[in-house]
Every structure is written in structure tokens, then in C-alpha cells.
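A further point concerns the way the authors explain their paired sequence and structure data. Nothing conveys this as quickly as seeing an actual entry. An entry of this sort, consisting of the sequence and the corresponding C-alpha cells, reads as follows:
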Amino acid sequence: MKIMKNLDTQEEFEQLIEDSRKKPQILLKHSTRCPISRGAMSECKRFAKRDNSADIWTLLVVENRELSQAVADQTGIEHRSPQAIIFRDGRPVWKGSHYDIIAEDLSAKIAE
């Protein structure tokens, strides 16, 4: 299983953007207080077990509200939790939230 990276700083977000120029990156905005978010985390872990086509970063939104808002501001994508954003070539190319975050759909979106 691929290790999911923690996104804790603006510099790490900038690294995610840079890494997306070489390989798709998935950012999961995760709430440790939400059962729906636990389900989205499980789906991302399922994706990671079977698909190496993208790196996965996890941003804990309760613990890191400022960075979560900064990501929303920089991408122009309104904050949701849970929320998955796929980055390719330095920009977001797909977003989904709540029950839209499914391992098979992540694989399909990465393959597009």
C-alpha cells in the first residue's frame, strides 16, 4: 500500500503542485470529526492499495483550518469536507466531495 502523505504547510502544498507536473496528485481534505470523511479516507486507502498512478496527500481540516482555506483560495475551489481534488500539470482538474469520493472513480479520473 502506498503511504499517504500529510499536508501540513504551504510549502508542502507548493510541493504537491510541483509534483503534479510529473505525476497526478490527489489531495484529500479530511475531517477527523466526520463519519462521512472516514468513509472518504477508506476509499482513498482502497485506491492507494491498488493504484500507483497518483500520490495521495491528506489535509486535516480541523487541525489545519488556515491551510485548508489557503488551498481553497489558491485553487478557487470552495472548501468542502471531505473533499478530494486531483491535480495534474500544476492545476486542479477534478474535485469531488462527500459520497463522490470512491476508489474506482478516482482511478477513472486519473486515467482521463
In short: Residues 71 and 108 are 24 Å apart (CA to CA).
